[in-house]
Amino acid sequence: MSKQVFDYTHQAWTQDGAYLDCGHYQAGTILGPGGLNSGKVFQGCDCYGRAHEGEAVSAEILAEMDERERSVITSNNGVRYVLEGEA
Ligand SMILES: [Zn+2]
Q: What value does the mean pLDDT take over residues 7-17?
């Protein structure tokens, strides 16, 4: 199972270097039952993941996600995170 990584720049989840759908309702879905919005028609969302589902993540964003992961792991463990293949 491959890991999902969040693209903070576009606020979207990615997996295996491609964007995933946001998982919100599809436009036109009738909401409910219950709740304030019950019976209303969902107008859709403008999430990056939905608009770009399946598209490849750019090298620039991949590098940014990698850098963020390193800094998180380093601050959590106090141990320098070394990617596979690095000295
Ligand atoms: Zn969405």
A: 96
31 alpha-carbon distance from chain centroid:
24
Q: What is the Å distance from ligand 1's center to 71 Cα?
A: 28
Over range 21-34, report the average pLDDT: 91
Q: Which residues contact 1 (CB under 8 A, 6 or more apart)?
A: none
Question: 75 C-alpha to center of ligand 1: Å?
Answer: 31
CA–CA gap between residue 47 and residue 10 (Å, rounded):
8
Q: What is the rounded CA–CA span in Å between residue 48 and residue 21?
A: 8
Distance of CA 45 from the midpoint of ligand 1 (Å): 5
Please tell me the distance between residue 10's alpha carbon and the centre of ligand 1 in angstroms: 12
Residue entry with tokens 């909401």? 31
